[in-house]
Design goal:
The chain is of the alpha/beta class. It is flat. 32% of the residues are buried.
Length: 465
């Protein structure tokens, strides 16, 4: 039977519910009285269902706790409450509950409601899995696309894929993907094992190396960006795979040109400094060159927020200052969900536009001049919050998450939402002279990794001693 978490303010009522459910064969994994406890329990032991009272011990009421449980863990919630007013009901309905029972209720009512809720949740998960399979297939046709059967033999290849690989479409059909899609290491130029074949054989997610080259039939080496997925039937059995890839030669050329342009700017600036210093006009040199140098050295060229170099230096300075005053600091590490799929579907220019809009949205939320927004990596942003504890960091992270959703940037390749979303890891601590900013960043990365592992589009926090 089901594993159930009871969240009930009145201990006697909780005891009666537990006794009734255990008679029906259910396993009660915990019985708690507060919203905070209700959110924490599923992180350790995930229940199949939550029975939620609305009036709880703390200020975190049952509706808010139910919303958090739904967002983080996708667990069905049934409300058990004495509240019958329309306002409470409307608030509860927004959390998409699987039942709403008014106290006092009959044990048979509870049993029927639980049975229906569990069946509905199972059906919704199946429909969501089916939807995702269709999304992977339909949205991938735009770029080079190859589909295989459960043994890795090609059942479909579009014109773009045929052109890149050098194979005629009719001749490629029925061939093993190993023959048509030859991948090589860009450094050694040696052939690597095909990740699609490995994924099918092992029944695991298909993972490509960070960079690889496609060796076309005519011997041409083409840098590609790729994504792939196994296709499963309703029983979870592998029935095939689908691969989408894109020639990124132009993107690499653009990146190389940008890097060369920045190098040339630095070189020109250095020449100006040298010439003016030789004329013993050092102050003039600083005035002429400093704006250009600062722009290149400390500002991210694409998003126009602080870059990684500036962030690292800023953290070192702030850390020493806050350690002396034993003042808290929080980090919010933000990562775009399914951004590789976004680039595959919409192209790299659209990806750059998306990054610019995301940076702008975060900047609008991070209003205080005391805070710092920086681009931490290709698809990650970090917000530094001096003098802010973990609760303030969590509040700001939720505000950033909500602000991005307001933009409604369409992302049909996301498995968590129809729009672009963020996963956020929040970490906080009070620096001391023997501590390092790396400790706080490691905690933020750990929280972010958990948010991603749980499906994305959520906030996870870590508070260090």
């Amino acid at each position: 039977m089901a594993k159930i978490l009871i969240v009930e303010n009145e201990m006697l009522v909780a005891w009666h519910i537990q006794e009734a459910l255990e008679k029906l064969g259910h396993n009660i994994i915990a019985s708690v009285t507060s919203g905070i406890e209700a959110i924490q329990v599923p992180a350790a032991i995930k229940p199949d269902l939550v029975l939620m009272d609305i009036q709880l011990e703390d200020n975190f009421d049952g509706i808010a706790a139910a919303q958090e449980i739904h967002d983080r863990y996708d667990i069905p919630v049934i409300y058990l409450t004495a509240h019958t007013d329309d306002d409470t009901l409307q608030r509860a309905l927004k959390t998409n509950p699987f039942g709403y029972l008014i106290k006092p209720f009959q044990e048979k009512q509870l049993h029927i409601t639980i049975t229906i809720a569990l069946h509905r949740h199972q059906l919704e998960k199946y429909l969501e899995d089916t939807k995702q399979q269709l999304v992977n297939t339909i949205t991938s046709v735009r770029d080079a696309t190859i589909a295989t059967d459960h043994q890795g033999y090609i059942t479909f290849i579009n014109s773009t894929a045929a052109s890149l690989t050098g194979w005629h479409k009719k001749k490629a059909i029925g061939k093993n993907i190993n023959r048509v899609l030859t991948l090589i290491n860009p450094k050694t130029h040696k052939e690597i094992k095909n990740p699609v074949v490995q994924g099918i054989q092992r029944g695991t997610n298909i993972k490509f190396p960070n960079s690889c080259l496609l060796l076309a039939k005519n011997g041409k080496e083409i840098p590609i960006s790729e994504t792939a997925a196994l296709i499963r039937n309703g029983n979870g059995e592998i029935v095939g795979s689908i691969l989408v890839f894109q020639d990124i030669t132009k993107q690499q050329q653009i990146y190389a040109t940008r890097q060369q342009r920045e190098f040339d700017l630095l070189k020109t600036s250095a020449t100006k400094v040298n010439r003016i210093i030789q004329q013993k006009e050092f102050s003039q040199a600083v005035a002429v060159v400093q704006p250009e140098m600062l722009s290149v050295a400390f500002v991210d060229n694409l998003t126009q927020v602080a870059n990684r170099c500036y962030f690292d230096n800023y953290m070192k300075r702030e850390w020493k200052k806050l350690a002396q005053g034993e003042t808290p600091i929080s980090l919010v590490l933000c990562d775009l969900d399914f951004f590789k799929a976004f680039n595959q579907i919409y192209g790299y220019q659209a990806g750059n536009d998306c990054l610019q809009k995301v940076a702008c949205a975060i900047r609008q939320v991070v209003e205080s001049p005391e805070n710092l927004l920086a681009r931490y990596s290709d698809k990650e942003f970090v917000v530094v919050l001096p003098n802010i504890r973990v609760t303030g960091g969590m509040w700001l992270a939720q505000k950033i998450r909500a602000r991005l959703k307001q933009l409604k940037l369409t992302h049909v390749g996301s498995t968590v939402n129809n729009y672009v979303t963020l996963s956020l890891g929040v970490a906080s601590m009070v620096p001391h002279l023997g501590s390092s900013p790396a400790t706080l960043m490691a905690a933020a990365k750990e929280a972010l990794a958990q948010a991603k592992a749980e499906g994305g589009d959520r906030v996870i926090i870590r508070e260090l001693d």
